[in-house]
Amino acid sequence: MSTIVCPEHPSPVADAETLRKAFQGWGTDEKTVISILGRRNASQRKLIRQTYQDLYQEDIIKRLESELSGDVEKAVYRWILEPDDRDAVLLHVAITKKPLPDYQVIVEIACVSSAEELLGIKRAYQNRYKYSLEEYLAQHSSGDMRKLLVGLVSVYRYRGEEINAKLANSEADTLHSAIKGNAFNDEEVIRIITTRSKPQILATLNRYKDDHGTSITKHLREEPSSEYVSALRIAIRCITDHQKYYEKVIRQALAKVGTDEGALTRVMVTRAEKDLMGIKEIFKKRNSVSLEHAVAKDTSGDYKAFLLTLLGNHAG
Question: Phi/psi of residue 138, each to 5°?
């Protein structure tokens, strides 16, 4: 469930005009920018972009980049993009990160997105970067990691809820045999995780836990750390319970010395219109403190105000 508090029928013309005034004069009126953009859904933000362009012959995204700075600029920039385009940008930044790609972000987007969402993201990626996502990802990865990542972004998973219990039993055994033999890169492991429907994978992993007394992610965590095993574990966590996964990402981002603003921003802007309410509830239960309180404690200034607005804060 979304945490965004939107007016029912805001005027895109009035919003564009108010934003224009916020950009003019000495200094930017960040409070007004945050109050408007942080309280508009994706379709409303799209209308604002179109209207601002029509009224002033100027791209509001470029204007925001010049008017804002630091963490709040990055957060607002991500937020105002259309969801598919935003994920395409996040993927490209992750793939081109030096010295190594940010595999966590790539796996996260590939596994949490629905089949239709992933298709839209790949289309947006091609439009923006003039490469296919698969092509660019393959170019920037190798070995087992390439097989896993390209498999995850290439699949169009079946969306139905049906499960095959017999198949779940046999594939649970296949996974256990591979992991027991440290064959984490076994083709069958990659095939199961990258191609089966999410309900089917969940049934297989539940059977795995029932048969072997512990979850597959715990078994993977016991093994020597590697980028590939870590990516495999993230894929499984995102497929089985992505809200619980995102809560951990936020918790770890806030726990880091100096706060990991990149991870915090990513979760906030990508989940605010989808299921941030559920993530908030898990966070409160896990940490005995509200997410709003934790964010307010670890952030400051306009960045703090923007994140709290996305969390549904009515103040300001």
Answer: -65, -35
Lookup result for tokens 């095993």: 229
Are residues 111 and 127 in contact, defined by beta-carbon separation less than 8 angstroms?
Answer: no
pLDDT in tens, 278-287: 999 999 999 9
CA distances from 128 to 88, 122, 182, 234 (A): 8, 10, 40, 27
Task: With CA atoms as reference, report the closest residue to 150 among 137, 168, 169.
Answer: 137
65 in Cβ contact with 77 (< 8 Å): yes
Confidence grade of residue 257 (pLDDT, cut at 50, 70, 90): confident
pLDDT above 50: residue 212: yes
Token pair 């300001």 is at which residue? 316
pLDDT of amino acid 222 = 80
The tokens describing 172, both together, are: 């649970």
**Residue at 257: amino acid letter:** V
Contact 13, 281 (CB under 8 A): no
Q: Verify cis geometry, omega within 30 degrees of 0, for the bond prior to 99.
A: yes
| Cα 108 to the center of its chain, rounded Å | 6
3-class DSSP state of 155: coil
Task: Provide the residue type at 95 as one letter.
Answer: I
Q: Are 277 and 263 in contact (CB under 8 A)?
A: no
Mean pLDDT of the chain: 95
In this predicted structure, the answer to whether residue 27 has a pLDDT above a threshold of 90 is no
Amino acid code (one letter) for 277: M
Is the pLDDT assigned to residue 316 strictly greater than 60?
no
CA separation (Å) from 270 to 42, 54, 105, 304? 11, 27, 12, 17
Residues 37 and 17: their CA atoms lie apart, in Å, by 13
Length of the chain, in residues:
316
